[in-house]
Design goal:
By secondary structure, the protein is α+β, with helices and mostly antiparallel strands. It is built from one helix and six strands; from the N terminus they run E-E-E-E-E-H-E. The chain has one domain.
Length: about 100
């Protein structure tokens, strides 16, 4: 079963206030010139009140989206499925050149 993507809800709507520590990756494209050359990607797991787990993703350009980054929450039924999805996401980002910040 492939989970559907949903926009990330505010903390008071269906999510608990505790989140596991996350990971931030950075990417610098030497061929992009000045615009869009520095990008960041953050990801962490967060338990929902209904017992599921969300993979929270946030991303943007360094210096431009620190206040209002783009974000997305992918729901999963349990921690195992969420960790597997997290591993796949990190592998894709590493293949694109992102490195741990």
């Amino acid at each position: 079963m492939i989970p559907t993507r949903t926009p990330m809800p505010p903390p008071h709507q269906g999510t608990s206030q505790t989140a596991t520590s996350g990971l931030v990756l950075c990417f610098q494209d030497p061929n992009a010139g000045r615009r869009g050359a520095l990008r960041w990607y953050g990801v962490h797991l967060q338990e929902r009140l209904d017992g599921g787990v969300d993979v929270i993703r946030r991303w943007g350009r360094l210096g431009h989206t620190a206040i209002h980054p783009r974000q997305l929450a992918d729901p999963y039924p349990d921690w195992t499925a969420a960790r597997d999805a997290l591993g796949q996401l990190l592998a894709r980002r590493a293949a694109r050149g992102y490195q741990r910040a």
